[in-house]
Design a protein that fits this description.
alpha+beta
């Protein structure tokens, strides 16, 4: 009997201690949010509430908005969730509608589901470890254009203290039909892209951590393009390699291009006026010698030097400059 009473007392004390921990954590979180909002006037909210007792910290921001450097973002609400025993892992759930305004151009974003996961290293400075944003069934409205997406994914992971890998994937992309008709009246290009993907490495001049809230803005010092993937009916193009801009913004590096449906792609390029008949015939002969008969997949090693894209000695074109933000 005494043992049972002792266990009961211990259980009650544990519950009280856990409840006290939650309330202490809520008070600390409330002070941190208030201080952060006071320190960053470009971030505004109408109000916020904290709930989640006893195992979570759930914060709901009412009408959050951000205005900085000619860009503004607003939404009806934003919710942040974290487990009390894992506060360095945040989950954000966003309202169905977002408004992004840049230089007078307003973009309306509607989604059926849009959420993010932010993981920081469990240390005093909380450096960013990884970030994932996933959206389903999105409509992007810009002026009189409406672009639709089945799925949008953005992911980052830390490679070194100041280096992060970033990947952006769009699946089931439907560009605005009227815009595509204006750009491609002959209907040479697809109206639906099954997949678009781009990846890069970003290096900053400082570690991305909790001190971002103190007003210390990180500066991007290096961008290295590491991959691109595009797929539409009949064609799948994947580029892997490393392209880094020089001081003048011109890209240099090596790329391997893997193309499934390469003959169909050359025909589309010719019909679009990007290749003449002679160039298409030359490429069919050159690239055909790099494949086995009946193989619809082609691996092409390319080099880029000061923006010039070459297949061996053959100059294919010049890539645009990639300027880093000041």
């Amino acid at each position: 009997m005494r043992a049972i009473k002792g266990l009961t007392v211990l259980a009650v004390l544990a519950v009280l201690a856990w409840g006290a921990y939650w309330f202490i954590g809520v008070r600390a979180l409330d002070r941190a949010i208030s201080a952060g909002l006071a320190h960053r006037p470009e971030v505004q909210v109408d109000s916020y509430e904290i709930h989640g007792f006893p195992n979570r910290f759930d914060v709901t921001f009412d009408a959050p908005r951000i205005e900085a450097a000619g860009v503004s973002w607003s939404t009806p609400f934003l919710q942040l969730f974290a487990l009390t025993y894992k506060p360095q892992h945040l989950v954000a759930v966003m309202a169905p509608d977002q408004i992004l305004n840049a230089n007078g151009q307003e973009l309306l974003i509607h989604s059926e589901d849009l959420r993010a996961s932010l993981v920081m290293q469990p240390s005093l400075d909380l450096p960013l470890e990884r970030l994932a944003v996933v959206g389903h069934v999105l409509d992007l409205q810009l002026a009189d254009e409406t672009h639709a997406l089945d799925t949008l994914r953005l992911g980052t992971r830390r490679l070194a203290d100041r280096v992060h890998e970033v990947a952006l994937v769009a699946e089931g992309l439907f560009p605005d039909p009227a815009l595509m008709d204006r750009l491609d009246p002959q209907v040479l290009w697809p109206r639906r892209f099954e997949r678009l993907r781009a990846s890069a490495e970003l290096e900053f001049d400082r570690v991305l951590d909790r001190h971002l809230a103190d007003g210390i803005e990180p500066r991007l010092t290096r961008v290295t393009l590491t991959g691109f993937d595009a797929a539409w009916p009949g064609v799948d193009v994947t580029a892997t390699g490393r392209l880094t801009p020089g001081p003048d913004g011109m890209l240099s590096g090596d790329v391997t291009l893997q193309v499934t449906g390469w003959e169909a792609l050359l025909d589309e390029l010719r019909q679009a006026g990007m290749l003449d008949d002679g160039t298409q015939a030359m490429l069919l002969t050159t690239l055909g010698s790099m494949t086995t008969e009946g193989d619809d997949r082609l691996d092409i090693p390319l080099t880029v030097a000061e923006g010039d894209l070459r297949l061996g000695p053959l100059l294919l074109g010049t890539l645009p400059r990639l300027r880093l933000p000041a």
